[in-house]
Amino acid sequence: MSLKIVDSKTTEHAHRRNPGFPLDLDWVGRVRMNRSALERRAGTIGARRTVKKDYQLAWLLKAITLIDLTTLNADDTAGRVERLCSKARHPLRRDIIEKLGVENLRILPGAVCVYHTFVKTAVAALEGSGIPVAAVSTAFPHGLAPVETKLKEIEASVKDGAKEIDIVIERGMVLRGDWQALYDQVKAFRKACGDAHIKTILGTGELATQTNIAKASLVCMLAGADFIKTSTGKEKVNANLVTSLTMIRMIRWFAEETGIEIGYKPAGGIATAGDALKYMALIKEELGTHWLQPHLFRFGASSLLTDIERQLEHGLTGHYAADYRQPMV
């Protein structure tokens, strides 16, 4: 079977890491979001745009490379993390890979995301695979701990081998409009990360308005964030297309003003292949095809890979497999 897959080399753009910029409160003050307009635009995604047949299979293969394969449960164990890492190394069954004719492509997730406690376990399990480990830090998921404690947690995760750090902002700073405090804290987190990339989790479901979300996105980017991320996955409201549209438009505005491209990571509730295709279509239309690369776009997900694998098998056989044929952990 021959899939129409775009070679990533044809869409590569030079990428500079965000160096951070001075806090521009005038810019922050000019930010306004029209929720009803955002909702109308978001409603068009998936309703009239889709990909079919071989193109859909190719997009789903691309989606696998954009997943931060995640386990952030209270009952996580070293064994569960090792099994997740094994799945990351081999995200698709061999027979599916052979039938799709993609043996020569590197179809691996963007990262494996775990609690700090399991960073060493994940690093050891992924050794030689080239898959980075992302650690959630800074008192995930609430972010309410002394700054010194949060900085030490970041430093410990980096020391243990994490290449990416997902930090949590204090939502109260946004709700109070204390942009200087938010900027200073994220800047300190960025410094503690060193060479590890920093993803700032906004907890968008708890920020009250789309304008708050947009302003928080901008402040985090000015402070040096490499990615802005919607949610911890623990809030009542997690990723959705309206919030995503707000955040990626701030990313576009930031790129236009600074020349720096920031990554975007929706997380929480993205569980189906159909969900993934909608987010990928949104990114393609709002930011461009080249943003659909792991250094600029990720899904935070724990069950998405299972459904993608089922959909790929369905595309090959016309039948949906039982869940046990694509075990996760």
UniProtKB/TrEMBL annotation:
Enzyme Commission identifier(s): 4.1.2.4
Annotated keywords: Lyase, Schiff base
Pathway it works in: Carbohydrate degradation; 2-deoxy-D-ribose 1-phosphate degradation; D-glyceraldehyde 3-phosphate and acetaldehyde from 2-deoxy-alpha-D-ribose 1-phosphate: step 2/2
InterPro entries assigned: Aldolase_TIM, DeoC, DeoC/FbaB/LacD_aldolase
UniProt record similarity statement: Belongs to the DeoC/FbaB aldolase family. DeoC type 2 subfamily.
NCBIfam families the UniProt entry points to: deoC
Descriptive protein name: Deoxyribose-phosphate aldolase
Source organism of this protein record: Devosia oryzisoli
